[in-house]
Amino acid sequence: MVRPSIAQHTELQRIVNAYKANGKFKFVGIAVNDKFASWKQYLEKHVYTYENYIFQDSDYPNLRKELGIYSFPRYVIVNTKENKVVRSNFQINQLREILNTL
After folding, report:
1. Burial classification of residue 31, based on how many CB atoms lie within 10 Å of its CB (0-12 exposed, 13-18 middle, 19 or more buried)
2. SS3 category, 90
3. For site-directed labelling of 96, which of 20, 77, 78, 82 has its Cα 20 to 30 A away?
4. What's the rounded Cα separation, in Å, for the pair 65 and 12?
5. Strand-strand pairing, 51-55 and 28-32
6. Cα 34 from Cα 68, distance rounded (Å)
7. What integer best gives the mean pLDDT of the chain?
8. How many CB atoms lie within 10 A of CB 33?
9. 34-61, pLDDT tens digit by residue?
10. Closest CA to 29 of 51, 8, 45
């Protein structure tokens, strides 16, 4: 069984490709509490053009709360100029519509 977050990577890559030219957005993938070796091996097999990071809750105990991440997969839009979450708790099928309003 493929985890939902992994199943959505292909669609997220399509969205990244569609919006990369406008320069308004940066897409980042975050894995939480995964095994580093498995995560790295997965990314070596699957080429994504957005940045990917991994962290452990023990290293960043407040990050999930700050980003409003309570389940996975989770999509969050952050305004990095103002350092605040713009939108959270939406599904990938809503992402294009949301990005079109920003």
Report:
1. buried
2. strand
3. 82
4. 23
5. parallel
6. 19
7. 86
8. 10
9. 788 988 999 999 989 998 888 888 888 8
10. 51
Which of 51, 5, 63, 61 lies closest to 25, judged by CA? 51
All residue ranges of the chain with pLDDT < 50 are: none
Strand locations in 1-102 (E): 28-32, 51-55, 75-79, 84-90
Output the pLDDT for position 63.
84
For residues 74 and 88, give the distance between their C-alpha atoms in angstroms, rounded to a whole number: 8
Q: What is the pTM of this model?
A: 0.80
* 3-state SS, residue 28: strand
Which of these, 67, 48, 43, lies nearest to 57 by C-alpha position? 67
Gap between the Cα atoms of 98 and 47, Å rounded: 25
CA 67, chain centre distance (Å): 11
CA angle 21, 26, 8 (to 5 degrees): 95
Q: What does the pLDDT read at residue 77?
A: 87
